[in-house]
């Protein structure tokens, strides 16, 4: 019986969800521009207006890829090496 219930969890259902209109990055940044209370709350968290980076300038650099599997030694891939160095290994 519990198996049937688990299968029901994955069956499609109609939620009537309708996403809102698309907004640009700047529109989302300025949604609460006139809300002084929210601005002060964000500043208390260390977030200042204009702190968010532009979406076209990502600053994420992945340096390592680590695989951890219970009962096996970890595999650590140093992604700072060039492809030629990996071919030698």
What class do helices, strands and sheet pairing give?
alpha+beta
In terms of DSSP E residues, the strand content is 5-15%
Low-confidence stretches: none
**Topology order in helix (H) and strand (E) letters:** HHHEEH
Radius of gyration: 23 Å
Described by strand count, sense and barrel closure, the largest sheet is: 2 strands, antiparallel
- If you average the pLDDT, what whole number results? 79
Helices, by number, come to 4
The separation of the N and C termini measures 52 Å
**Helix proportion of residues, in percent?**
25-40%
Subcellular location: Cytoplasm
Region (Disordered): 1-32
Pfam families: Rho_GDI
Keywords: Cytoplasm
Short description:
This protein has 89 residues and is α+β, with helices and mostly antiparallel strands. It contains 4 helices and 2 strands.
Structure description:
The protein has helices at residues 2-9, 25-29, 36-44, 83-88; strands at residues 64-67, 75-78. The protein is an alpha+beta fold and 89 residues long. It starts with a helix and ends with a helix. The relative contact order is 0.08. It is found in: Cytoplasm.
Topology:
Layout: H1 2-9, H2 25-29, H3 36-44, E1 64-67, E2 75-78, H4 83-88
Antiparallel strand pairs: 1-2
From the structure above, extract its key features.
alpha+beta, 89 residues, 9% strand, flat, cytoplasm, two-stranded antiparallel ribbon, Rho GDP-dissociation inhibitor activity, 31% helix
